[in-house]
Amino acid sequence: MKRVASVSLLAALLSALTPAGAQEYPSRPIRMVVPFAPGGGSDISGRVLAEGLSKALGQQVVVDNRPGAGSTIGTDIVTKATPDGYTMLLGNISLAFNPALYKKLPYVSVRDLTPVSLVVEQPNILVNHPSLPAKTLKEFIALARSSPPDKFTFASAGLGSGTHLAMELLNLSLNIHMVHVPYKGTGPALTAVLGNEVTVFMSTFASALPHVKAGRLHTFGVTTAKRAPALPDVPTIAEAGVPGFNYGTWYGLLVPAGTPRAIVDKLNKATVAQLHSAELRQRYESQGMDPIPSTSAEFTAKLKSETEKWAKVVRDAKIPQQ
Questions:
Q1: What is the pLDDT of residues 29-67, one digit of tens each?
Q2: Can you give the three-state secondary structure of 26-87, one letter per residue?
Q3: What's the rounded Cα separation, in Å, for the pair 81 and 258?
Q4: Ordered DSSP codes for 228-270
Q5: Nearest to 312 by CA among 187, 133, 165, 181
Q6: How confident is the model at residue 161 (pLDDT cuts 50, 70, 90)?
Q7: Rounded to whole angstroms, what are the CA distances from 153 to 108, 168, 199?
Q8: Bond before 29 cis per omega within 30 degrees
Q9: Which of 179, 180, 221, 288 could connect to 153 by a Cys-Cys bridge, CB 3.0–4.6 Å?
Q10: CA-based Rg of the chain, rounded to a whole angstrom?
Q11: pTM of the full predicted structure?
């Protein structure tokens, strides 16, 4: 009897350590909120991962696009969801931008969300019209520094967008001034630089790549720490004359704060396994995206450091809050 009682007590203790909900998770479909419209980088990266996780977890992962207010609408939905693993967020670098860009957010990213894993990173690419006399970044830097402060302009996909803040980071790094010309999206901004209406544009990689390959646009470099496989002869901006410069649009999977650790760990394990699979790697790389699986702790540290980094950029560049 004593032996049976001891076994029962051990079972009870194990049950307390591993909640029943976590043991059987998932038992129904999971919603993945993508806080941007269909067709963009967040949507693409989310749908590829959702397919992989559906296979790995044995339950369908359904993408739910909730765009608006620079990703804050969809993000707020997730922060207020029940923390049971059945609502996830496919967030991106805007999680680090928005605390500095918005006067009042309905949530605090680093408090109200638990990172699961980083998913992919996509470089941007600094492009210009081929008629610009400078052919290297060093030549352009020299030209900008010897010209009147407002001679050169840069396009962006909108105030507070990644294409805007990345250029402000470059301006601050070089101690030069170029006039910001915001457009309503990457498409119109690309059209402007193709038409030689603006000097440069730090475009998303996939959007600019066809124009670079066709010779319609010239490029000074890619923004991440390593070269892009699709353009192996194009240097990074750090190599081309701005040591230490590193900007990439990262995407990551998060859940509401308070989600049981066993569920976070299970999602992390499944996500990392999928990102290491040949199938998902090929699909991401064909879109110019680089899989960057991580631990939950690594993603948490990155989110905190990126939030601090971009708060300083917004402050130093005197970008008005919305």
A1: 999 999 988 877 888 899 999 999 999 999 999 999 998
A2: CCCCEEEEECCCCCCHHHHHHHHHHHHHHHHHCCCEEEEECCCHHHHHHHHHHHCCCCCCCE
A3: 10
A4: -TTSTTSPBHHHHT-TT---EEEEEEEEETT--HHHHHHHHHH
A5: 165
A6: confident
A7: 34, 12, 5
A8: no
A9: 179
A10: 22
A11: 0.82
- Residues making up the chain, counted from first to last: 322
- Reply yes or no on domain 28-121+248-316 having CATH 3.40.190.150: yes
Residue of 39, 107, 45, 41 whose CA lies nearest to 77: 107
Instruction: Give the Cα separation of 179 and 233 in Å (integer).
Output: 29
Q: Tell me the two tokens of residue 203.
A: 């475009």
Contact partners, residue 206, CB within 8 Å, separation at least 6: 41, 122, 287, 288
- Which residue in 248, 252, 253 sits closest to 237, CA to CA? 248
User: For 106-149, what is each residue's pLDDT tens digit?
Assistant: 999 999 999 999 999 999 999 999 999 999 999 999 999 999 88
Domain boundaries, the chain: 28-121+248-316, 123-240
Q: Do 156 and 163 meet the contact criterion of CB atoms below 8 Å apart?
A: yes
Q: What architecture is the 123-240 domain classified under in CATH?
A: 3-Layer(aba) Sandwich (3.40)
279-294 residues labelled b (16+ CB within 10 A) or e (exposed): ebbebbeebbbbbbbb
Contact 94, 177 (CB under 8 A): no
Q: Match 């079972």 to its residue by tokens.
A: 11
If you search the block for the tokens 């030209």, which residue do you land on?
143
Residue 59 identity: Q
Alpha-carbon span 174 to 192, nearest angstrom: 24
Residue 82 tokens read as 């029940």
